[in-house]
Amino acid sequence: METTQRPTYARIGSRELLLIFAFWTFIATLSAVNRALDPRGFGFQLSSPAGPIALEYVESWIWAVITPGVFLLTQRFPVERSRWLARVGALLLIGIVIAIAVDLIMDIARIEILAGVPSRRPRVFSPKDAILRLRFVNQLLVYLAILAAGYARNFYLRDLTRQREAVVLEARAAELQAQLAAARLDALRMQLNPHFLFNTLHAVSALVERDPSGVRKMIARLSELLRHTIEARGADEVPLRDELEFLQRYIEIMEIRFQGRLTVTVNADDRALEGLVPNLILQPIVENALEHGASRASGQGEVTIDAKVDGDDLVVTVQDNGPGLSSNAEGVGLSNTKARLDQLYGDPASLSLTSPSGGGVLATLRVPYHTAADLRTRAMHA
Fold first, then answer.
1. Helix and strand tally (H, E) in the chain?
2. What Å distances lie between residue 253 and 117, 141, 247, 351, CA to CA?
3. CATH classification of 208-381, choosing from 2.120.10.30, 3.40.50.720, 3.90.1200.10, 3.30.565.10?
4. Range list of β-strands (E), 148-299
5. Which of 32, 41, 284, 301 has its CA 20 to 30 A from that of 350?
6. Mapping DSSP to helix (H, G, I), strand (E, B) and coil, where does residue 260 land?
7. Could you state, in order of their start, the residue ranges of all structural domains in the chain?
8. For the sheet containing 313-320, what is the strand order?
């Protein structure tokens, strides 16, 4: 079953009505000035042009009253739709009726206003004569001009509405894009946390008989880590200082697992500690250094974490003393880490693995340097 969409009408406000009245008053004033300079119009011999000037204002104000109605007609009969020929015919017929009516009203006004003015040819009200002689054609031309202005108004309002809708759609698209980005980050975190949890529980099970006290300590640290992970899930970025504090709990678990065969050194300057990094970004990098590096070292496993500000970037390096890069050096944790960096920063951020001359693997994390104070300043100026 087909449904016919009813046309929507653009309301003509008081400001627009005032502009219409001002426009027609201006037109009348121009004509009145012309009459004052040449008062021989209408074929009368006048001692004063006051009568014709008054008629100019009467005619203009009649059209000022009619104009809003003609504008509404252009909305009721949009010519770009189907059956446009019939609509044009209807508009023309309505225009002829309006033009005849205005012409007859002006005839009456002329008789009344100019009744006391001497005239060679007294005007007599004769509707039939006015119609047959097509004296209304001038009024019809005025109607057609108003009709054209009405359609131009409709096109302008339609374009304005489309521009506003485009702005709303762009804002909505940006909002949806932000929600999608947040959902992707949450998905990456959800992939990361089970991976980390599985590895830690595996370490607990391996030590449950050999070191019961150490296992109890590992479980306590694991509980703290999980609580921190849950509480910080909504934060995309945290200061490096907080990230290193969280990482220290993880390192304590790994030190128990390695049973004294692990040394972790952290070096970070004060400015680097204030820089923001993605939440939980370092744990998978350090975990990768332990699993593929320090755990396979011939002697004592060593991991060194350095953080510094390099120009506009915050650079964090994690180096181990393991056997070096291998084909499976990049696991699930690092893959998700790179995906998170790309989601949050795009090209300015990176994570790379290299083989330094001294052996082992060097993981380099580079993100744009910014602090919580910088974000607050940007928010205030936004």
1. 11, 7
2. 112, 91, 10, 25
3. 3.30.565.10
4. 237-239, 262-268, 276-278
5. 301
6. coil
7. 14-168, 208-381
8. 262-268, 301-310, 313-320, 362-368, 350-354
Number of alpha carbons in the 13 Å side-chain half-sphere of residue 100: 14
Residue 106 to residues 31, 110, 256, 329, Cα–Cα distance (Å): 15, 6, 105, 95
Tens of pLDDT, residues 216-266: 888 887 787 777 766 665 577 899 999 999 899 889 888 888 888 999 999
Average pLDDT across the chain, whole number: 80
Q: What share of the chain is helix, strand, coil (3-state, %, to 5)?
A: 65, 10, 25
- Its pTM stands at 0.52
Neighbours of 43 (CB within 10 A): 9
pLDDT for 240 equals 96
Backbone φ/ψ region at 298: left (φ over 0), alpha (ψ -120 to 50), beta? alpha
**CB count, 10 Å around CB of 82?**
8
280-289 as b/e: b if 16+ CB within 10 A: bbbbbbbbbb
- Name the 3-class secondary structure at 363: strand
Structure-model confidence comparison of residues 67 and 5, the more confident one: 67
CA distance 222 to 159: 60
Which residue has better confidence, 8 or 201? 201
The amino acid present at 191, given as its one-letter code, is Q
Q: Please state which of the ranges 29-43, 249-263, 305-319 shows the lowest mean pLDDT.
A: 29-43
